[in-house]
Design brief:
By secondary structure, the chain is mainly α. The chain contains 3 helices and no strands.
Length: 91
């Protein structure tokens, strides 16, 4: 596998990981007990930390990409392992 393919896979996994992690650990102003700014949405986060999100997404994406590359190299799980509908659909 070429390094550009690995980089593209990492970028896709990173974006998906970052979007999945967005709601975790975030509190609204009401939950945190912090006063709101006039006109602010009730659902606006009070403790959004993008650096922590980027770091966590980078580490998790690196691990998931490494697992994907290892599976691609060693063939642990293939298409035939994911065929849950029976042998008729493998042809």
């Amino acid at each position: 596998m070429q390094w550009t393919s690995i980089l593209a896979i990492y970028a896709l996994v990173w974006v998906m990981t970052a979007f999945v992690m967005l709601p975790f650990g975030v509190k609204t102003h009401d939950e945190a007990g912090v006063p709101k700014v006039p006109g602010q949405a009730d659902s606006a986060p009070a403790n959004f930390r993008p650096r922590v999100l980027v770091f966590r997404a980078s580490v998790i994406a690196a691990v998931l990409t490494a697992l994907y590359i290892a599976n691609y190299t060693f063939g642990w799980i293939g298409v035939e392992d994911l065929n849950f509908l029976g042998p008729l659909f493998l042809d």
